[in-house]
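Example 761, ligand zinc ion.
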Amino acid sequence: MTPAEPGEALIEVALPLPLFQTFTYRLNDAVENPVAVGSRVVVPFRQRRQIGVCVRLNAERKPGTRIRKILDAPDPEPVIGADLVSLCNWIAEYYVAPPGVALRLALPVLLTGADSPRPRPRTRRILRITGDPPSLLERDAIFGRAKQQRALYEAIESLGGSTTAEHLRDQLGFSPAVIAGLEKRGLVAAEDEVVARDPFLSRRIAAAPPLSPTPAQRAAIETMSAAAGAETFLLHGVTGSGKTLVYIELLRAVLNRGKTAIVLVPEIALTPQTVDRFRGAFGDSIAVLHSALSDGERYDAWLALKRGEKRIAVGARSAVFAPVRDLGAIIVDEEHEASYKQGEAPRYHAREVAIMRAHAAGAAVVLGSATPSLESWVNAEAGKYKLLRLPERVAGGTLPKVEIVNLRRRFTGGNGSGPPPVGDYERTISPELDEALHARLALRQQSILLLNRRGYASFVQCDECGYVATCPNCSITLTHHRTPERLVCHYCLHQEAPSATCGRCGGTTLRQRGVGTQRVERMLGERFPAAGIARMDVDTTSGKWAHVEILDRVASGEVDILLGTQMIAKGLDFANVTLVGVVDADVGINLPDFRASERCFQLLSQVAGRAGRGPKGGSVIIQTRVPEHHAVVHALTHDYESFVAAEIEGRREPAYPPFVRLANIVFSAVEEEAAMELAASAGEWMSQLLVAGQVEGITLVGPAPCPIERIKNRWRWHLLLKSVQPGALTRALRFFAERYDPATATAQRRITIDRDPVSLL
Ligand code: ADP
Ligand code: ZN
């Protein structure tokens, strides 16, 4: 490297390409805008224009390289603050992603196109009367026979002298020609006014009476608000303990200090009530980064945050990149949720990114949950995070009583006499749950039923040979759906018409096994014809605001029984819900994944927490075939700490998080052989790296086939790296990503690196 010549002005640019290096360019005198770290630049790359981000000024010249000039710099000032540039660089480094790809996380989609890098704001045309209004006599003279123009003039006058062109056209029916005519006479002037695109402006929120915090809430609020600089809090509060109020009071303290904040929620569409409460408390200071926003709406929210017009960003994981300045706090609600991990590169975990960002900004982080992840819990025990507890429900509320119904004893006979002759409904809804539902309907109280399996039947099986219909592209059974009748793969969305005969033996007695939400909805409809029943799962919530509509119907009392998948387990707060039933607690409990039990416990605790949130109290019925499983046993008593004590023992040997850090490298190819060979060669390369002593303290597991061996037509193998030293993992992964050269790799073969994976399936 040699220093740049004086006046040469070289910069480093990160481009959104699957490449780990950055590129050097020369500034261009013909480009007007100044370039700083975080500015976008349009550059020539190979034969194309690319839009990248300047990551360094005064770059050094690499000898022997031809350095080209930048073509354009669209921003008068950097679009990404220097703090976010370093945050994205950390993500690129830690999660082993190309820097230009990581930087995209900090940009709204509208700013990522190379051809039209300046988005247009949304405007509306306003017509305003100019000068003093003419007298009636003058009007006769001015308008003469132009009656329409006079009517238009007088309409604007009656609306206070100005209105939108849209209103005149669409509501009052004036033609564009008449409007243009009036403008031409100079009697009205038109101007374009910039409007922020904010779909929440139309959703009304009831003003909530201010609550006064309980002593436990107050203690938590005071500790957090007094935090000097960067500190991480783990707020362990049982369901219904009033965590949201604690967040709100912390946010108030942050705003009062002139700072800004970010609130992360697992999935914003699922938590309209929580979002409404923040909006109720802070109104216009909040930007809600809803997944249903259009690119334009998202851009406007981004701009308002960047300019400081909005000072709190609420959103799902990507909101951690909100361009706020003077950050005072980041709240991560339901911090244990898997949705905080991004499933594609860069595979970052928003909770970890939040901690990094807050740390650099000297801000506080609050991780809130009734069922914290084991990782966070262990960090709190080690004193890395400060543990704050809300051990009780607010206002004298008690946690609901939980009852277990053991399905195993009931339907497997066990004494050779075979199961009793029962129908579909009885097999699915036990007499206990049935009776409880009846009782709620009679009292006009509401029930929530969880079944974490959508579709009609979970699989179709041949009675003669036992064959189960599976996806041709994935090693996954096909789920039977009704309306329309089809077999669907939930991984690749492959669909086929159900066949009347077995695909293997040609037998004709195909049976549907395992119920899904569609089927239970139908059973409930037959059983309780007068009840209002709503189903909430991926299939009923494809519309933008579908979740809100269903939940609004629950709030209004129109729905007596809300049936759904895990979507209904979080955040819902309805005082009239006094019963929660778990139709089948065992879905997922036996998945070959080290977090399967933890997930199951979290889901059961969360959904149980929906019951009895009002003065009427509530109860929970869990149906299971494994009542002795620790995830079920401790959900019964709402005992998080006992669950952790039991679960953590199983993570010691073989070691899994929180005892070690993991990195999962997945190899996939269309041919089984190719995936296997790729994994073997990479495994060999990696073990040589370790043997050579280049990196120490890493255990290699595999290569082995992934638990789900095939997804979307690709065979999958994986290699697992374990270490107690994060730095060692970073080094090994970067060596691998930058230097491993699979001679046989083609577009057909893929390697993905998943650091701190949330699942190993
Ligand atoms: P969590 O998120 O911990 O499950 P929420 O924040 O949803 O609990 O609060 C549960 C319910 O208690 C909400 O209806 C909320 O309005 C109410 N609540 C919270 N704090 C108080 C308080 N200090 N006094 C009265 N009601 C409260
Ligand atoms: Zn499939």
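Summary: The chain has six domains: 10-111, 123-194, 215-396, 401-454+517-649, 457-514, 661-755.
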